[in-house]
Amino acid sequence: MDWLRRADWLTRERVRGYALLLAAASLALLANSYLNAIGPGGTDFLAFWGAGKVTAAGDPAAAYDLAVQQRIQTATGSEGWFAFVNPPPFLFAVAPLGALPFPIAWIVWVLATWALWAWSGIRAFPRLWPLVIAYPGALIAAGHGQTGLLTGALLIAAADRLDRRPAAAGAAIGALVIKPHLALLAPVWFAAGLRWRAFFVAAAVALGLVALSWLVFGGATLVAYTSSWHASEALMEGTNPDFLLRMTTFFSQARLLGGEGAGLAAGALSALMALAAAALAHRRFSRDPRGAGAAVLAASALASPYLFNYDLPFLLFPTLWLVAEGLARGFRPYEKLALLLLYLAPYATRALAFPLGINLMPLAALALLALVWSRGGAGAGTTHAA
C-alpha cells in the first residue's frame, strides 16, 4: 500500500500537469455557470448587481428593499431573486457594477475578484502558482458570482503579511467589514500574538468604512440595512434541507440531522475549538508566523455557524502551507493523499452534499486544522514562501 502511504506518484511534474488540466476543465465549468447566471436559473450575483444598480441610480437604501430587488433582478429574465444582506460598505464595490448590463457586470466581477485572489495566493506561494490557479475552492465562488474570492484574497493577504507588514494585514482584516463573520477570529489572533498595530488598524479601517458609507450613502441606508437581518434570521431559523446542505458548518449539518438543539451544541463546540486555535496559534508556531496564520485560517472555517462552500477560497492558504512544509521537510505517511483530498474538498463536498444528504466540508475543515496543528510545536521552524 505504499502507493497510498507515500504517494510517490504525486511528483512535482505530475502535480503541475494535473493542476493545469484541472484549470482548463474549470474554464468549461465556469462558462456553463455564466450561461446559467444570465438565464432563467439566475445566480447569487443578482443580489450584488441589483444593489449596485439602485446605488448607482442614487437610491442606496433600496438595496435592502425586497420588493425593489425582486423587480430589478427578475427584469433580467431570472426566475428567482436574492436578498442583499451585506453591510453598506460593500456598496462601494458593487455600485460601479450596477452601471453595467448584468451579463457584462458578472464577467467583470468574477474576473476582477479572481485576479485579486490569485494575485494574493501566488504572492504567498509563488512556486506553487499552478495549484493556486487550479484551486477548486475558487471555482465554486466564481460560478456563483459570490464574494468568496474577494474575502479570500483579504484573509490570505492577512495571513501572509502579518509578520512583515502588520498594518497591511490589519487593513485587510478591517476590509472584511463587508462580511464580518469571516473575521471572527482576527481580534483573538492579533491580541494573542501581541500584534497590536494590526489589531488597531483593523478596527480603524472597519469603523472608517462604516463611517464613510454613512457619509456617502446616508443614515437611511444604515437603517435599511438592519431590515436585512430579518432575512438572514429567517434563513438561519429554517430547516430547509436545500439550504442547510449548501452550508459548511457543524451547526448546519447537526441541525439537519438532529434538530435545533443538536445544531446549537455542535455550533458552540466548533466555535470554541476555533477560538482556542486562534488564541494558541502564535504559541504553537512561535517560529513561523505563516504557520500561525495557516492555523487561524483553517480554524476560520469552523468559527461561524453561517458559511458556504463559496466562502472557502481562503482555505488555499493553509492547504498550500502544508504543501510547502512537505516540500521543505518531507511528507509524512499518507499526507500527500490527505492534501490531495483536502485540496479538492471545497468543491467536491458541495457536489456530493445532495447525493449523500450531508455536507462533509466541516469534517474536511477539521482535518485541515488538525494537519496544520500537527506541523507546529518544538520541531517546527520557519517555512518561507514556496
Sequence-ordered SSE layout with sheet pairings:
Elements: H1 2-5, H2 12-37, H3 45-56, H4 66-74, H5 91-98, H6 102-124, H7 129-133, H8 136-144, H9 148-161, H10 166-174, H11 186-192, H12 196-217, H13 219-237, H14 241-244, H15 250-258, H16 260-284, H17 289-303, H18 316-329, H19 335-356, H20 361-374
Helix pairs in contact: 2-8, 3-5, 6-9, 8-19, 9-10, 9-17, 10-12, 11-16, 12-13, 15-16, 16-17, 17-18, 17-20, 18-19, 18-20, 19-20
If you had to describe this structure to a student in words, what would you say it looks like?
By secondary structure, the protein is mainly α. The protein has 20 helices and no strands. Helix 9 packs antiparallel against helix 17. The mean pLDDT is 93.
Keywords:
386 residues, mainly alpha, 20 helices, globular
What's the structural domain tally? 1
Note the total helix count. Answer: 20
Helix content bin: 55-70%
Low-confidence stretches: none
Report the count of strand segments: 0
Approximately what portion of the residues adopt beta-strand conformation?
under 5%
Structural class: mainly alpha
| Global mean pLDDT | 93
Task: Give the N-terminus to C-terminus distance in angstroms.
Answer: 29 Å
User: What composes the largest sheet?
Assistant: none
**Topology as H/E string?**
HHHHHHHHHHHHHHHHHHHH
Dominant shape: globular
Cα-based radius of gyration, to the nearest Å = 20 Å
